[in-house]
Amino acid sequence: MSRIVLGVSGGVAAYKAALLLRALTEGGHDVRVVPTPGALHFVGAATFEALSGHPVTTDVWSDVPEVAHVRIGQEADLVVVAPATADLLARAAMGRADDLLTATLLTAHCPVVFVPAMHTEMWLHPATQDNVATLRRRGSIVLPPAVGRLTGPDSGPGRLPEPADIAALASVVLASGAEALAPDLAGRRVVVSAGGTREPLDPVRYLGNRSSGKQGWALARVAAARGAEVVLVAANVELPAPFGVRVVPVGTAEELRAAMLTEAGDADVVVMSAAVADFRPAAVAATKMKKGSASEPDAVPLVRNPDVLAELVTKRAPGQLVVGFAAETGDDDGDVLAHARAKLARKGCDLLVVNDVSAGQVFGRGENAVVVLAADGGSTEVPLGSKDAVAAGIWTAVRNRLPSSAEG
Ligand code: CTP
Predict the structure, then answer these.
(1) Which terminus of the chain is more exposed, N or C, with fewer CB under 10 A?
(2) 3-181 placed in CATH 1.10.3470.10
(3) Given this structure, which CATH class describes domain 189-399?
(4) Residue located nearest, by CA, to atom 21 of ligand 1
(5) Which tens digits make up the pLDDT trace of 288-310?
(6) Atom 14 of ligand 1: nearest residue by CA position
(7) Domain 3-181 matches domain 189-399 at the CATH topology level
(8) How far apart are the CA of 239 and the centre of ligand 1, in A?
(9) What residues does each domain of the chain span?
(10) Whose CA is nearest to atom 3 of ligand 1?
(11) Do 362 and 211 meet the contact criterion of CB atoms below 8 Å apart?
């Protein structure tokens, strides 16, 4: 069981900290909440105490013999500050210790994740941006804020990401360390496809597959957390959009192809994690096929769908990386990696993320393990972990092969 300190500073988004606390404890973590005095204007200490099972104090004068201001930070495996207000970021960047939370930040040896939430002007102010740069230079993670509705009727960057997104990202840092969310995709544009296409037979039926879209969702969420501008082309996935990600919903392989070709134009990285149907019914019945009627089919003839990945490869912009996925099983002709190497060469992409599905793993499951094969002969093993942790491993393999950005 990991020990997480949840720091909460005084912004209206503090109410979401209660939901985040719930998500973290349900994830099996022991969570200690350390609010600033300002945070308690928004959410009462009793709420945090009840949900965490620990006492809550804001100052260094309670429980003095316990030396809480030193012990809480020292014992933590992870500190998450959500919401992190402009004032909290400023105090943390200055190294102040004027309440229990800032004192805890000075004694923590573990990774620290700040999740900013504030009004857009405050976020974009050079003072705040300098403080963020200082904290990042020292190794802290500062997530980019979500864009959307703020406290009043206005909207812009400054919104707190949804608690489920923050909890998933916190788990990645616990599993893989702070590097997993390094801001190394800032200034990059990435396009990810996810889910599974559905090819209609008639107005109510389709040929589909079992892809849940979870791995593609995790890829989008982690890329956004690492600073990328992310477009997620989503085939039939019901999950809520990850923060900071623009979702383009599609249904069929043909729709997915059109959306990918439109979005891929100026992207630095294109990732085809969607399960695209290789075949579709040759004809779609205009009305429902009924049993015993003239429309009852003897057989359903299929035709080939376009290979979207192969087309993206032939149309790729200079410097663009194209990443394919492959679910493989070993057989008499070769093992999983031999088949995957052959597919990488056949498809012509730069990287191929290989899932071994021999034992019926992966589909719909929370965990995954992959090998990332590169066209240059390299390979990276990403060990079994949450789909977000696997996404972080994939992005590190991608980042290592990206040409350096124009900004240098
Ligand atoms: N893919 C695609 N368009 C298709 C089928 C697949 O873009 N019509 C992409 C998938 O998104 C994935 C990669 O191609 O990134 C590998 O898909 P897979 O179906 O395993 O490849 P195939 O060439 O169909 O190989 P196989 O002969 O093993 O079915």
Answers:
(1) C
(2) no
(3) alpha beta
(4) 326
(5) 999 998 888 899 999 999 999 99
(6) 309
(7) yes
(8) 23
(9) 3-181, 189-399
(10) 307
(11) no
